[in-house]
Structure formats: structure tokens, C-alpha cells
Design brief:
The protein folds into four domains: 1-57, no CATH class; 69-197, Tetratricopeptide repeat domain (Serine Threonine Protein Phosphatase 5, Tetratricopeptide repeat), CATH 1.25.40; 209-281, no CATH class; 291-347, no CATH class. The chain is built from 18 helices and four strands. The radius of gyration is 23 Å and the shape is globular. The longest helix has 24 residues, at 324-347. Helix 5 packs antiparallel against helix 6 (87-104), helix 7 (119-129) packs across helix 16 (287-302) and helix 16 runs antiparallel to helix 17 (307-321). It is an all-alpha fold and 348 residues long. The protein has a two-stranded antiparallel sheet. The chain has a two-stranded parallel sheet with strand order 3-4.
């Protein structure tokens, strides 16, 4: 799929470097919300770099390379270190990436810089924070890099250092739940229950799947145990499995039974809603997230965007709402994709 998209983009190149760089930037904007966006944008970035004059290449190499390798290649080397159980080697490489990020791509620089993965991330951020200043995208996913850095530091039992890196990851992409979940693990390790609760609240605001919500609710259950509010903990754990199966929940409920010496009774719906109200947390998916995803999906359908892009947004909405009207739109998009694939097979 990515190969076909890139080949189609290449047909629009003119041979004029200035025009082609602008053209590739437009194509990047076009595909930035596609499920394959990271790989497509990486290839387009490499194509654009090859078109630059040598003077500009040298400047960008200073910013985007460590030695002879781009930052994304260095990150891949760090992942290889992890696979080979060389955690210290991975941490050293990530520290080198951090130096470049801090020097050239800091989130609080002017304009602000973010590592949004797609348009949904960007729109959720804009809705939550309503930025007044201009901002631009980073050439690499520094949110992912710092999330990995924080995770490794958690593994090394260095929670304070991990929290610092994970907060940087969140600054690069406030709409990405992954560093927030890892930060929650840090607060569990340090037994900082109030920071854990704040982290869960913020994560729920940007959760886009039932699995995200389930994990947040399970974390609320953990919080309930920490503050000895066992009835609320039970309610949160029961609600978490409504959204996604979690084999750990059964063990946590047995843990509560062992602590309290009482059998666990399934909470009523009123019990569950009362637990959420007690901590000022709205039950269910964030309606702003649902509305943003639906609006983006509808816009893509109305403007004849690739059906895969429309599908990406509508599947998020359906996952969160189970709305049958949204399911009908998904079925329509599936039919379009199938017809397109059949047409391509016929040509071949």
C-alpha cells in the first residue's frame, strides 16, 4: 500500500527542486492522517532532503544527524540494543537523541514544535489547549523517542528520571496516551496517589479507544486500593472490563478481597456512577474526542479523501460509541475499498 502511494506521488515530480519540495510538502499534508502516515512521511522527508542544495543539506545534517545516521536510524539502533538486552547501550543512544532534540526541536521553542502522529492528534490538542501561538511539526517522532527513554528508565528503577523524560514526551504530543500510561506506572512505583489520579484524568481526555479507557479505569482501581477506598476500586475494575477484557482485573479483585476479608459483590450501575462522581470523573469516552473524530471522518467522506483515511476516523467513533449509523458509514467505506482493490486487480 505504501509503495503504491509513493509511486503515485513520484509521478507528480517535475525535476524542478523548488517546485518538487513544495509538492512533496503538500503530499505530506495530504497523507498525514493516513494509518500509514509515519512510513509515508519518512519516505517523503528523505525525498525532500535529496532535493536540497548542498548548503542546506549540511545545515540539516547538523540538526538531524548523529554522526552519519539520522535520528530515526539512531532510534532504531536503540531498539536493537533493547532486543539484545543492552539496556544501558539503548539509554546512551537515547541520551544523544535528547541532546539534538533539546537543542533544535524543543517544544517550547518559537514556533512551538510538536510530534503529532496524525490530524486527530493535532485537533485534539487544539481543542484541549486552544493554542494562540503558531506551531510546527518535528521531523521525527520525539514523543515516541522520549516515551521509550522513560520506559527504559522505569525498567532501571529510576522513576524520577523516567518522569522527566515522559513529561518531555507528553510535551511533544499531549494527545498521545502512551507516555501518560507510562507516567502513571511511575506514580505507582513512587506511591504518589494524587499525581496518579491527575494523570488518569488527563489521559481520559485524550483516550481514543475502548482499550485506552479500560486501562484508565483499571488504573483508577489501583488508585482506589492505594487510598483504601475499596468500594470505589471494585466499581472501577468492574467498569474497566466493560470496555476491554483485562486478565489482571480478576487478580486485583482477589487482592481487595484479601485486604478487606469480604467477598466481592458486583456493583450496581448506581454504585459505579457514584464512584466516578466521587472523584469528579465523567464516565465513558470524552465527547469532544468523539465529536472531533466524527467531524474529521465526515469531512474526509465529503471531500473524497482516500476511504482508508475516512475509515480511520469512523472506526474510532464506532469503537467508542457503537453507533449503528457510524457502522453503516464504515460498511460503505469497506465497499469502496473492496471495489478499488478489485479494479486494481483487473488492471493487473
Amino acid at each position: 500500500m505504501v509503495k503504491d502511494i509513493i509511486e503515485e506521488i513520484k509521478k507528480g515530480l517535475t525535476g524542478d527542486p523548488a517546485k518538487d519540495i513544495s509538492y512533496l510538502q503538500e503530499q505530506g499534508m495530504k497523507y498525514r492522517s493516513a494509518p500509514e502516515a509515519p512510513e509515508i512521511l519518512k519516505i517523503l522527508s528523505e525525498m525532500s532532503f535529496d532535493l536540497l542544495p548542498d548548503e542546506n543539506k549540511n545545515q540539516l545534517k547538523t540538526m538531524m544527524f548523529i554522526g552519519s545516521k539520522r535520528l530515526d536510524q539512531v532510534f532504531n539502533d536503540a531498539n536493537t540494543c533493547v532486543k539484545n538486552k543492552d539496556i544501558d547501550g539503548a539509554i546512551n543512544l537515547l541520551a544523544e537523541i535528547e541532546k539534538k532534540a533539546d537543542q533544535y526541536f524543543a517544544p517550547d521553542s518559537t514556533p512551538n514544535k510538536f510530534s503529532f502522529r496524525n490530524r486527530l492528534d493535532e485537533y485534539i490538542y487544539a481543542n484541549l489547549y486552544k493554542p494562540e501561538n503558531k506551531y510546527e511539526r518535528t521531523p521525527f517522532d520525539f514523543c515516541q523517542y522520549f516515551s521509550a527513554y522513560g520506559y527504559l528508565l522505569v525498567e532501571k528503577r529510576k522513576p524520577e528520571e523516567a518522569a522527566e523524560k515522559l513529561k518531555k514526551a507528553i510535551a511533544y504530543n499531549p494527545s498521545n496516551v502512551e507516555p501518560r500510561f507510562e507516567l502513571a506506572e511511575v506514580y505507582k512505583l513512587t506511591h504518589d496517589s494524587e499525581k496518579l489520579l491527575d494523570c488518569i484524568r488527563e489521559t481520559l481526555k485524550v483516550s481514543t479507544t475502548p482499550v485506552h479507557i479500560s486501562r484508565c479505569y483499571a488504573n483508577l482501581g489501583y488508585y482506589g486500593i492505594e487510598v483504601k477506598d475499596y468500594d470505589s476500586a471494585v466499581a472501577f475494575y468492574y467498569e474497566s472490563v466493560v470496555y476491554a477484557q483485562n486478565p489482571a482485573v480478576s487478580g486485583e479483585l482477589q487482592h481487595i478481597r484479601a485486604i478487606t476479608g469480604k467477598d466481592i459483590k458486583a456493583p450496581t450501575r448506581e454504585d459505579i456512577l457514584a464512584a466516578f462522581e466521587k472523584y469528579g470523573i465523567k464516565n465513558g469516552p470524552d465527547q469532544d474526542v468523539v465529536n472531533i473524530a466524527y467531524s474529521l471522518g465526515s469531512y474526509c467522506i465529503e471531500h473524497d479523501a482516500p476511504p482508508q483515511e475516512s475509515m480511520f476516523y469512523m472506526q474510532i467513533v464506532y469503537g467508542l460509541t457503537r453507533d449503528e449509523k457510524v457502522k453503516e458509514k464504515i460498511d460503505m467505506l469497506n465497499a469502496q475499498i473492496a471495489a478499488k482493490n478489485l479494479a486494481q486487480e483487473s488492471k493487473a
